[in-house]
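Supplementary Methods, section 5.1.

A reviewer requested that the exact input to the structure prediction be made available. We therefore reproduce it here, unchanged from the version used in the analyses.
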Amino acid sequence: MTSTELFAKAQALDALAGDVETAIDPAKSIADSPDWECANATDVRGALNGWRSAAQSAARNLRDEASRVRGEARRAEEREEQEERDARRERQPQ
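The structure derived from this sequence is encoded token-by-token as follows.
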């Protein structure tokens, strides 16, 4: 993959991490509101807390992968720049 593709992949992973991290928030907000009461409200709130923790953990893993891909993109960018410099040197008359 090119550095541009890798940077785009890292950006997409970061965006996905943000979506994953906040996926449970709307349900949790409703369940935490005083208006939302039912026989199993405590169980639901506990489950949502567990799912929220799992989502945060998954988001952290996605951000770690994005960071790794960004490093790979920087290395690819350096290689591409070096290849361009080498190609320019080869094209120059001697």
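The radius of gyration is 23 Å. These observations are discussed further in the main text.
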